[in-house]
Design a protein that fits this description.
274 residues
């Protein structure tokens, strides 16, 4: 008969093994790309792969010296920034009103819109954007991003707004604060963790989104993921600059997540519990 101590040790070993496998699956590809970005062209294509080599930053210099990369970098920042701002302006009041009026059916309806695969909307969007002159524009990409960011934000923020006591708002109203002032000055600071969490998630989604810009952007608004994809389909595939571009794309996401790590972890935990 197995002792309780043996079961605890076995469970702990299985847990550690699962953690190592999970971390390896997610970390190793990026580690591999990072090594490739530091190799010369010959070392990058060497077989078997070389793990001991003299690192060089020539690939990063080559990528950053390209006007197309810098233009795509600016495009990604513009689209991401305006998507996040517009999303907070629209989705936070919507989620607050739904939470206060307890319109659960409406929140389910909003979530239901996200069940269809994004690919089914691409053709209608492409035709409509062409007709309206929104193809290859920042406004077009921001509008498309908002179609999935707003439902996600409304749904995730419901629990945070429901936890804000109504008495706090009533006290603000008695002090002469308007509805808008109460929402901005009283309620939003109380749900700061949720706002930071959804902003971090939004940054990750919008920054990395590929399929929408691939179809709806052109030479003027091409974003970084689409630019890197163009490296892959190039006849003269060069692993070094491609890997350097991939690392440069990833760095802002890592920085943003680490910057908001404290609120992000707490927000995800609370959001999951709610």
């Amino acid at each position: 008969m197995e002792s309780p101590g043996f079961k605890k040790i076995a469970i702990r070993i299985i847990f550690i093994f699962a953690c190592i496998v999970s971390i390896t699956v997610f970390i190793f590809p990026f580690f591999w790309v990072f090594l490739m970005s530091l190799k010369t062209p010959d070392a990058a294509q060497a077989m078997p792969p070389e793990f001991i080599f003299r690192p060089t930053f020539e690939n990063f210099r080559e990528v950053l010296s390209q006007g197309a990369f810098l233009r795509a970098l600016i495009n990604s920042f513009v689209v991401t920034l305006f998507t996040l701002i517009a999303n907070l302006i629209i989705a936070l009041p919507a989620s607050y009103i739904i939470a206060r009026r307890r319109q659960k059916w409406l929140s389910f309806g909003i979530l239901f819109t996200q069940m269809a695969p994004w690919i089914v909307f691409l053709l209608p969007w492409y035709i409509i954007f062409k007709k309206l002159g929104l193809y290859d524009t920042y406004i077009g990409l921001v509008l498309v991003n908002l179609t999935y960011m707003i439902p996600l934000t409304v749904w995730l923020m419901l629990g945070f707004f429901e936890d804000v006591p109504v008495e706090v708002e009533e006290a603000a109203w008695l002090d002469g604060c308007s509805n808008t002032g109460t929402f901005v000055r009283i309620v939003i600071p109380l749900v700061k963790g949720g706002v930071i969490t959804i902003t971090t998630l939004g940054f990750m989604f919008v920054w990395n989104i590929f399929i929408f810009p691939l179809v709806l952007s052109g030479a003027k608004t091409k974003t970084l993921p689409v630019l890197v994809y163009s490296f892959l389909v190039d006849d003269s595939l060069d692993f070094g600059p491609l890997s350097a571009a991939a690392v440069l794309i990833t760095l802002p996401v890592i920085f943003f997540v680490l910057l908001n790590q404290k609120y992000f972890q707490r927000g995800i935990a609370l959001g999951g519990r709610k």
